Amino acid sequence: LCHLLDPDNINAARAAERLEPSAGALCSAGAAAAVSGAEAFDEGDHKAAVAFITVAITTLGGHFFTDTAAQLFCTRSAAHASDNNFSLALLDAAQAVLQRPRWPQAL
Question: What does pTM read for this prediction?
């Protein structure tokens, strides 16, 4: 499965918070939602995973790295697929590929 928020991205979010508190708070809130989504997915609560990851994507907007976007869409796709929502899973998988075309997990 996809791993959310690699250490480089977390460090960048923390740096952003120091430089621009409002942007940093936004990054921190989005990162917290992403982590909660990953935990919910790991626990098998796919509906909660979708909800948390949707909050992360919405909160972060254009303020996150392409790799993180691919990871978020990939994990949300897996959560949709686990709940037999294959059309939504396909849409998120397509977004993951758009964000990171050469990433094998997105394919």
Answer: 0.74
Q: Judge contact between 41 and 77, C-beta under 8 A.
A: no
Q: How confident is the model at residue 23 (pLDDT cuts 50, 70, 90)?
A: very low
User: From the centroid of its chain, how far is CA 92?
Assistant: 11
CB-count exposure of residue 22 (10 Å: 0-12, 13-18, 19+): exposed
φ/ψ bin of 4: left (φ > 0), alpha (ψ from -120 to 50), beta (otherwise): beta
Q: Which helix (H) or strand (E) holds 46?
A: helix 46-60
Asked whether 5 and 65 are in contact (CB, 8 A), the reply is no
pLDDT at 51: 93
Find, among 71, 75, 69, 34, the residue nearest to 55 by Cα: 34
